[in-house]
Amino acid sequence: MKEKVFNVSGMKCKHCVMTVTEAVSEVEGVQSCDVSLEKGTVTVKFDDTVDESEISSAIKEEGFGVA
Ligand code: 9UX
Known about the structure:
Elements: E1 2-9, H1 14-25, E2 30-36, E3 41-46, H2 52-61, E4 65-66
The structure holds dioxo(di-mu-sulfide)dimolybdenum (9UX).
């Protein structure tokens, strides 16, 4: 299991949090996703088989920026 904190820009309300949470959770192998609106972070736990780029792509596809 791996964990990474993504710095995500553009999340401004609770609906953004839901959108990101759903998109990340749909990635195969993701175990948990915790979004902090205040910090602009998305903390994800995922299986070793998952490539980090799959997660950042899922976030970007929803229109948010990933540092
Ligand atoms: Mo809230 Mo997020 O009105 O792009 S859904 S800011």
